[in-house]
């Protein structure tokens, strides 16, 4: 995949990003209240319908296969990281569920866009962009989290097809998805690093032998285990070369990780706004909380950390869209934004006092919503590992 368009494209790109921020704001503001009171599965499906109807899902697949016109931002056969960041930052401000249902379409289908056959791309990707097919991404296993070289789900040849056996866990959209992009072992043994021994597969959710079991995490999020008991798929379901699955997985994370940082910034911006409003309104000791220097300094610190995080996201997403490897930029953005956002949401809880922990208050929700972002798509420690390796050569 090549870099995005040049100077003419740059001004188109800026106008598009502005329009996407406005779209994200509209979708988030109007969509969030529609999810109130729904159970997790119903909320997930409703959220998907809302983002699909807005057209935002078209930004989760390349324009070559039914995606939006990303000229000036990304190559025709790629997804724009800046576009997704613009959408996620605005949507996450209003709703974690809308945000996750948007991005999972991209995360779950990018392996098809990147490495699927032309037939599979044409069959699957336009339907992901319209929301007709729900996507999921299956890497994590009970014994393989940060270390994907530990993957033990196996795919073996059987009567001219591939037979998949194993268990994935913490899979977003488990039980909701229509297909899973699954990283499985086609040679070697767990612990071998996985460089040439893992392969990415497209597995339809209705394949015989596939089952799911949902569980709950701290904030509403469709997630669970996906079990493969001799699930058979055809050769056309192999995404990329046999043995090159880790590259496909890492390319996917390389493109989407910065968007996690953008979502974190959306949560943080909301938390700061809530804290500002509360501390200006709430009076104690005869004056507004915000007039106490200790409180005002907290607000200033929250603001500067948020702005720094936003600038790191801009830097990383721009580099990703230009086709650069951007290893350090992406790691910095993910690490700093998610850690800062957690801190900002926590300060907002503190500044709201008891209301900050009252079930259903905005900051209480944000505090729970933001936590998982320091863990998924590479933990903070793994970002430090990546960054320090880049620094040390
Ligand atoms: C809400 C949510 C959604 C998710 N969605 C998906 C999904 O859709 N698809 C998917 O495949 N996975 C998904 N995951 C899984 C997620 O990617 C993993 O949880 C993550 O990669 C960490 O793996 P682990 O949980 O096994 O932790 P572990 O790898 O066991 O790590 C535990 C702790 O040890 C630290 N650690 C590990 N190795 C090192 C090291 N070398 N140096 C220092 N510290 C280290 C980690 O940073 C962490 O703090 C999701 C997780 C959550 C919480």
Description:
- The chain has 393 residues and is α+β, with helices and mostly antiparallel strands.
- The chain has three domains: 127 residues, Acyl-CoA dehydrogenase/oxidase, N-terminal domain (Butyryl-Coa Dehydrogenase, subunit A, domain 1, Orthogonal Bundle); 106 residues, Butyryl-CoA Dehydrogenase, subunit A, domain 2; 146 residues, Butyryl-CoA Dehydrogenase, subunit A, domain 3.
- The chain contains eleven helices and ten strands.
- The strands form three sheets. A four-stranded mixed beta sheet has the order 1-4-5-8.
- Helix 1 packs parallel to helix 3 and helix 8 packs antiparallel against helix 11.
- The longest helix is centred in the C-terminal third of the chain and has 37 residues.
- It is globular, with a radius of gyration of 21 Å.
- The two termini are 25 Å apart.
- The chain binds flavin-adenine dinucleotide.
- The site of flavin-adenine dinucleotide has 20 residues, from strand 1, strand 3 and helix 11.
CATH domain class name of the largest domain: Mainly Alpha
Number of domains: 3
Distance between the termini: 25 Å
Percent of sequence in beta strands: 5-15%
Number of helices: 11
Helix content: 40-55%
The strands making up the biggest β-sheet line up spatially as 1-4-5-8
Mean pLDDT: 96
Summarize the topology:
Blueprint: H1 7-31, H2 40-54, H3 81-94, H4 96-115, H5 118-129, E1 135-138, E2 154-158, E3 161-172, E4 179-185, E5 198-204, E6 210-214, E7 223-233, E8 238-239, H6 245-281, E9 283-284, E10 287-288, H7 293-321, H8 327-351, H9 354-357, H10 362-371, H11 380-392
Parallel strand pairs: 1-4
Antiparallel strand pairs: 2-3, 3-7, 4-5, 5-8, 6-7, 9-10
Helix pairs in contact: 1-3, 2-4, 3-4, 3-6, 4-5, 4-6, 6-7, 6-8, 6-10, 7-8, 8-10, 8-11
Bound molecules: flavin-adenine dinucleotide (FAD).
The site of flavin-adenine dinucleotide (FAD) has 20 residues, from strand 1, strand 3 and helix 11.
């Amino acid at each position: 995949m090549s870099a995005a368009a040049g100077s003419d494209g740059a001004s188109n790109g800026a106008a598009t990003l502005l329009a996407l921020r406005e779209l994200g704001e509209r979708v988030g503001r109007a969509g969030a209240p529609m999810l109130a009171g729904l159970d997790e599965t119903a909320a997930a499906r409703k959220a998907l319908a809302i983002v699909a109807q807005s057209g935002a899902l078209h930004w989760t697949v390349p324009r070559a296969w039914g995606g939006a016109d990303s000229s000036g931002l990304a190559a025709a056969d790629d997804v724009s990281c800046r576009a997704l960041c613009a959408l996620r930052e605005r949507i996450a401000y209003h709703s974690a569920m809308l945000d996750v249902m948007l991005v999972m379409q991209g995360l779950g289908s990018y392996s098809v866009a990147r490495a699927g056959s032309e037939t599979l791309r044409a069959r699957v990707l336009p339907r992901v962009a319209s929301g007709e097919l729900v996507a999921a991404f299956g890497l994590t296993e009970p014994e393989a989290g940060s270390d994907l070289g530990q993957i033990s789900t196996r795919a073996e040849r059987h009567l001219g097809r591939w037979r998949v056996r194993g268990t994935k866990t913490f899979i977003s959209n488990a039980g909701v998805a229509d297909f899973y992009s699954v990283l499985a072992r086609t040679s070697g043994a767990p612990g071998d690093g996985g460089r040439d021994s893992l392969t990415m597969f497209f597995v339809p959710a209705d394949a015989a032998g596939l089952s799911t079991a949902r569980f709950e995490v701290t904030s509403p999020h469709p997630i669970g285990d996906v079990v493969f008991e001799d699930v058979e798929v055809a050769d056309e379901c192999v995404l990329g070369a046999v043995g090159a699955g880790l590259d496909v997985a890492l390319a996917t994370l390389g493109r989407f990780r910065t968007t996690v940082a953008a979502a974190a910034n959306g949560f943080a911006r909301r938390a700061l706004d809530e804290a500002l409003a509360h501390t200006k309104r709430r009076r104690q000791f005869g004056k507004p909380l915000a007039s106490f220097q200790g409180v005002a300094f907290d607000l200033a610190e929250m603001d500067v950390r948020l702005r720094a995080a936003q600038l790191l996201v801009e830097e990383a997403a721009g580099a990703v869209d230009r086709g650069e490897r951007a290893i350090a930029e992406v790691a910095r953005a993910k690490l700093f934004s998610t850690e800062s956002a957690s801190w900002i949401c926590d300060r907002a809880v503190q500044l709201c006092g008891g209301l900050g922990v009252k079930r259903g208050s905005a900051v209480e929700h944000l505090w729970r919503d933001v936590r998982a972002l320091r863990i998924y798509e590479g933990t903070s420690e793994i970002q430090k590992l990546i960054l320090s390796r880049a620094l040390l050569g």
